[in-house]
Amino acid sequence: MEILEKLNSLSDKVKQQASLIQTEEATKSAFVMPFINQILGYDVFDPLEVIPEFICDVGTKKGEKIDYAIIKSNEIQILIECKKIGELLNVNHASQLFRYFHVTSARISILTNGQVYKFLQTLMLQIKWMKNPS
User: Fold this and answer.
1) What is the band of 127 on the pLDDT scale with cuts at 50, 70, 90?
2) Which domain holds residue 98?
3) Which of 49, 79, 87, 102 is most open to solvent, judged by the fewest CB atoms within 10 Å of its CB?
């Protein structure tokens, strides 16, 4: 199945079942885990690929958890933060993800409520200092 067909299929599922979903956990099970598996192509049941409730301690804040960390080649590639279906995704949720960029190797994160997926990226910029030419 092509990616567009997979996306359309998942979209149809969300439309049909959204009214039945009442919690963040149900949102993750019904919509986000299928997205990770069917669209992104990761095995959600393999802890070498997907780590649920990944701890992202930031500074003095201990026990901070991200809903999913996706691993490839033993490095965290993608962070996913989930909210309950229908919940508005706001800048506070995004700023939480950007804090996690500093404590992981991930450069892509996804903020989702199962209906809307917002992709965030941080770029590693390398700055070279040049001597002032005389």
Assistant:
1) very low
2) 3-121
3) 102
